[in-house]
């Protein structure tokens, strides 16, 4: 596939980030806890600073929204969204399923997305109007339309509690296979047809926006739990599916769970 200038730029940034991430991976790394008790390391901070620097040099008029630093120029037409290490808990515990994420929004909507897995050498890319790719080759979702046959992922079932617990139970009861963990890697697996659905709760924009064009360009669907498009102000409860039929079926179950008693 011929890459656009923006995707080529994203790839070049990820190439450099791989070296930075692997320098720190499985090393004697100090781990701090943020206000929400999630872990953060010098690797997270250094990688985001590098990504911001590269974006500012190449696209000085664009805004930047990231995890570790304050957002800039959010009134710009084009905004880059970056996550230096998605899956920091995996990163600090020596598990290779951590990723580097980058998206570009245009007029508030995801236009470009990239998932890069430094320890695995895997990369998914997507851009509006183009087929998504896995390591440079076109990838497609599975085509699964039946919840009873679906292979699903959610990162952590313990994140579903209180009034949202029935949503998790509906997923568990409906699908053929349910697995846990994976963070951003699950969306790549979905885009390549290895799983059929990803359900997550309480994500941040830098967690989900880089995945949107990858999923859509592979033939899948990704929205919030009400079926609305994802943007910077979305709540962060995300459903991604291999097909519109599968997506509609799970959205219906979610809606049923959230009806007043």
TrEMBL record:
InterPro entries listed in its UniProt record: Inositol_monoP_metal-BS, Inositol_monoP_superfamily, Inositol_monophosphatase-like
Tagged with keyword DNA-binding: no
Pfam family, any one: Inositol_P
Cofactor section: Mg(2+)
Keywords tagged on the record: Hydrolase, Magnesium, Metal-binding
Family: Belongs to the inositol monophosphatase superfamily.
Protein name listed in UniProt: Inositol monophosphatase family protein
């Amino acid at each position: 596939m011929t890459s656009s200038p923006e995707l080529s730029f994203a790839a070049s940034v990820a190439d450099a980030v791989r070296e930075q991430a692997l320098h720190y991976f499985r090393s004697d790394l100090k781990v701090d806890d943020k206000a929400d008790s999630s872990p953060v390391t010098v690797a997270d901070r250094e990688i985001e600073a590098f990504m911001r620097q590269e974006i500012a040099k190449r696209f000085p008029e664009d805004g930047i929204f990231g995890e570790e630093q304050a957002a800039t120029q959010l009134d710009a037409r084009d905004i880059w969204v970056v996550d230096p290490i998605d899956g920091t808990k995996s990163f600090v515990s020596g598990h290779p399923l951590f990723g580097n994420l980058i998206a570009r929004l245009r007029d508030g909507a995801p236009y470009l997305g990239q998932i890069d897995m430094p320890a695995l050498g895997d990369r998914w890319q997507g851009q509006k109007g183009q087929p998504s790719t896995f390591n440079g080759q076109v990838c497609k979702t599975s085509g699964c339309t039946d919840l009873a046959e679906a292979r699903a992922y959610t990162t952590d079932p313990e994140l579903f509690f209180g009034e949202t617990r029935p949503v998790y139970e509906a997923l568990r009861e409906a699908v053929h296979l349910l697995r846990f963990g994976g963070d951003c890697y699950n969306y790549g697996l979905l885009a390549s047809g290895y799983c059929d659905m990803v359900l997550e709760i309480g994500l941040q924009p830098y967690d989900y926006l880089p995945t949107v064009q990858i999923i859509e360009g592979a033939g899948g669907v990704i929205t919030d739990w009400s079926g609305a498009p994802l943007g910077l102000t979305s709540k962060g409860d995300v459903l991604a599916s291999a097909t519109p039929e599968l997506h509609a079926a799970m959205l219906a179950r979610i809606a049923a769970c959230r009806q007043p008693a």
